[in-house]
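Exercise 7. Given the encoded structure of a 288-residue chain, write a plausible sequence.
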């Protein structure tokens, strides 16, 4: 088993008074990375990619979004403008103004960094959308009720954390240790030993509802920064629809590059070094 280094955490208070927990790594290059996870995920899924980029001299901050991980649990709001404002607070408190910030988001996080780049174009040099950014739930489901039913999170009632760890290690047996630990960090251990998701179920549905309302293809034409989209070819059953969605999204972006990878939805955790290599190319493109 490969040892995974623990990195110091920051506690950043946003302009709205929300405490955001983040994992920070130092670096000396003029470009830096902001890493944003997906729905019901956490900052630790970025450990592998961020560690590799740190070894290349890139500083980074990986956040737990509001109500996720070790950040404050709040009842809202969860609209994407508010989530983007949280990230701006993190950027303002973490990076000097001259830093070329590359905002990288996975799944829901991809949609959030798209919103961030649209709202604050002078603070974001480039964005990368990891199997996200293009997600438009209103096109995938006929109505919100269907989306909520089909995308409801699984129940972990009475599932022991130790049993969950065994199951995850078996399921992700070909993953690096950093990715497995990242998946486990989506949960805390309840007093009875059960696995308890950090993201509460009600908050999960409220975030899903905001994803339902989000229209990335309406934002895309106004994004002037270079955008890297790394998309998974899975699941097989929805590959054609997904390719059409990614194609439509990327064609609306003035400056885009699309990479397809046969990988898990959390491809950044499954293939961290490969992901980091593509991200470094993007950073070099915008470095002063």
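Solution.
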């Amino acid at each position: 088993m490969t040892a995974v280094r623990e990195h110091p955490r920051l506690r950043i208070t946003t302009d709205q008074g929300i405490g955001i927990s983040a994992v920070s790594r130092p670096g000396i290059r003029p470009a830096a990375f902001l890493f944003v996870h997906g729905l019901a995920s956490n900052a630790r899924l970025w450990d592998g990619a961020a560690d590799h980029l740190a070894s290349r001299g890139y500083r980074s901050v990986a956040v737990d979004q509001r109500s996720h991980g070790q950040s404050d649990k709040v009842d809202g709001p969860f609209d994407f403008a508010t989530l983007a404002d949280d990230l701006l607070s993190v950027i303002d408190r973490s990076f000097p103004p001259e830093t070329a910030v590359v905002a990288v988001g996975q799944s829901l996080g991809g949609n959030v960094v798209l919103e961030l780049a649209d709202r604050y174009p002078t603070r974001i040099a480039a964005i990368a959308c990891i199997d996200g950014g293009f997600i438009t739930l209103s096109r995938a489901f006929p109505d919100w009720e269907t989306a909520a039913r089909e995308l409801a999170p699984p129940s972990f009632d009475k599932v022991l954390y130790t049993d969950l760890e065994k199951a995850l290690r078996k399921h992700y047996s070909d993953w690096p240790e950093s990715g497995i630990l990242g998946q486990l960090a989506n949960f805390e251990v309840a007093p009875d030993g059960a696995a308890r998701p950090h993201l509460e179920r009600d908050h999960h549905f409220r975030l899903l509802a905001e994803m339902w309302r989000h229209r990335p293809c309406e934002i895309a034409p106004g994004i002037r920064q270079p955008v890297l989209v790394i998309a998974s070819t899975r699941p097989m059953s929805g590959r054609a629809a997904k390719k059409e969605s990614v194609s439509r999204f990327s064609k609306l972006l003035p400056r885009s590059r699309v990479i397809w990878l046969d990988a898990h939805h959390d491809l950044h955790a499954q293939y961290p070094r490969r992901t980091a290599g593509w991200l470094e190319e993007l950073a070099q493109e915008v470095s002063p």
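Remark. The mean pLDDT is 96. Students should compare their own answers with the one above.
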